[in-house]
């Protein structure tokens, strides 16, 4: 399946499948790029918990249960601990090509789960993302995973921009 993540302004992202919005990610506040809110099926029951101001690591919590745990590594990879139906999976997000800003999500055995392609429009200064599943991913938290991956890519781009300044 192919999902599309579109940008409304610089703070609102929509996850779209077959021309219908499945979920939204909003950055609240003027300069907030670290704590998005997630609106999935018009319910806001996912919270982003960032334990440290100095690290980029964060957790997604739903009803006091950690669903996703993101750990940023020094080499640019992001390790994700994914708790789905009391089954813990460990997946890794890696940059596939630096020139096209494509990212790939790999499972524990190194098999490709999905590809995220970034398309930046220089006229509007907005990025749109295409998420293509390599295998049919079945999860109760697929929407929040996909939007969290987009949040990770935005965080990596902001870190690269800050380092080059």
Characterize the structure shown.
This protein has 165 residues and is mostly beta strands. The protein has one helix at residues 142-164, and strands spanning 2-8, 12-17, 20-27, 36-40, 47-49, 58-62, 65-72, 78-84, 87-97, 102-106, 112-121, 126-133. The chain is globular.
Structural topology:
Blueprint (H helix, E strand, L loop, with lengths): L1 E7 L3 E6 L2 E8 L8 E5 L6 E3 L8 E5 L2 E8 L5 E7 L2 E11 L4 E5 L5 E10 L4 E8 L8 H23 L1
Antiparallel strand pairs: 1-2, 1-12, 2-3, 3-4, 5-6, 6-7, 7-8, 8-9, 9-10, 10-11, 11-12
List keywords for this structure.
single chain, 165 residues, mainly beta, 12-stranded antiparallel sheet, globular
> How is the biggest beta sheet arranged?
12 strands, antiparallel
What class, by secondary structure content? Answer: mainly beta
User: Could you give the order of strands across the largest sheet?
Assistant: 4-3-2-1-12-11-10-9-8-7-6-5
What is the alpha-carbon Rg in Å?
15 Å
Low-confidence stretches: none
Tell the overall outline: globular
Oligomer: single chain
With helices defined by DSSP (H or I, 4 residues minimum), what is the helix count? Answer: 1
